[in-house]
């Protein structure tokens, strides 16, 4: 992802804004240009920030840019409106299925000659 | 209208070539093909390659492969879509011959993966998935598939051991093959106890980086016959796509692109899946392999692992699959991998498969896909 592409999608990425079909109401994240169900037009849609872990795994074969700090957990999270999305987990040593999580803005990685910092959403356990 | 047939193959052993680059590998495979089979008229050269651009090595690869071989009176095209790069090249080469534009095409792929560090390879091979979904989010091809594997196992009540059946079969086939990268036999326990890449998948569930080049000569049947070539026919082919995000699919573990491509290929060939008795499928992971087999319509969804366990897909079984080890054991040089599948089908039909020879091969099915069944390709070969 180049710096410009990252900048273009910053609002959606920082605020967890997906898209919703104006024809059939299907919700998607990452946002889409057309609806995968009916081909309809998509409009911005604010996803709920809370949900629960459905499945998780720990990435141990690390990709470039995410290989600075060792293995890390990723999950399929079901948000409060029923939308299921893929996401990184944070602030959690032992993830569990069914664990309540909430979206927080975090640094994801740095890249490039100028050490540009890329931010985005991760999910952490709901406190208390 | 031309009728496309395969008259020859050229390929290197899959492995790590520290002393050969992408051009030397392509040269070796193409030169072997031309010399061994006497192919000297080449209307087009189509080349699949996944990573040379990503590795800062070379863009517009096909032009430079043609230049390396001093083949200047040819139409060239480069195809770059991960493990389906050479599937796309072959798909279009077949169209070129079928249209009558070309009488003789050399088509295949080349990949040099061992030039870069593992993290670069992991990212490079994951970038065929939607990059917002996977690359940006710290997911990888393997961890995405690990999550879907959990859902699949839960839905159909499969055990971790059921995932291991296909890699064990593939390594068994590979142990007898001269051009395969990993020729060690493995056991269900070894897969289970190997280091994880993302649970439940271990290193024995997933393909490893490999270098290699494989090319085939596709000709018009009349032209091939007149020039005295022996050949295998390409009887049908099809391709289709589905959403890249598995969570946007009717079911996250349904390979609908594969089933639609299959339907088109079978109807083109005028046969049914029951007529097929040899398969070379593309499965960079054990879970992807089961999902491909599930989508062929040979069994109910979730039951392909049982068929593998019953020996249905073994070398001596009803429909042998990945007879030289597939991506898992023969090796997975991405841009060349479908071309290797064609090479292997050709060897089977010509009775040249050595210790891996299966008896009485009638129709072969070759399957390829971009990522986790985002776009898929199915070819039917037969009538040698
Ligand atoms: Zn819609």
Task: Indicate the mean pLDDT of chain A.
Answer: 94
CATH architecture of the largest domain in chain A: Beta Barrel
Cα-to-Cα separation, first versus last residue of chain B: 20 Å
Q: Give the strand tally of chain A.
A: 8
Instruction: Give the amount of beta strand of chain B, in percent.
Output: 15-25%
Number of helices of chain B: 13
Total number of domains of chain B: 2
Query: Can you summarize the main beta sheet of chain A?
Result: 5 strands, mixed, barrel
Name the chain pair with the biggest interface and residue counts per chain: A-B, 32 and 37 residues
Q: Estimate nothing, just give the exact number of structural domains of chain A.
A: 2
Classify the oligomer: heterodimer
SSE sequence of chain A, one letter per element = HHEEEEEEEE
Tell me about the biggest sheet of chain B?
9 strands, mixed
- The CATH topology of the largest domain in chain A turns out to be OB fold (Dihydrolipoamide Acetyltransferase, E2P)
Q: Order of strands side by side in the largest beta sheet of chain B? A: 3-2-4-7-1-8-11-10-9
Radius of gyration of chain B over alpha carbons? 19 Å
Keywords:
heterodimer, A: 128 residues, mainly beta, OB fold (Dihydrolipoamide Acetyltransferase, E2P), 2 domains, five-stranded mixed beta barrel, three-stranded antiparallel beta sheet, 2 helices, 45% strand, B: 384 residues, alpha/beta, Peroxisomal Thiolase, Chain A, domain 1, nine-stranded mixed beta sheet, two-stranded antiparallel ribbon, 13 helices, 11 strands, binds zinc ion
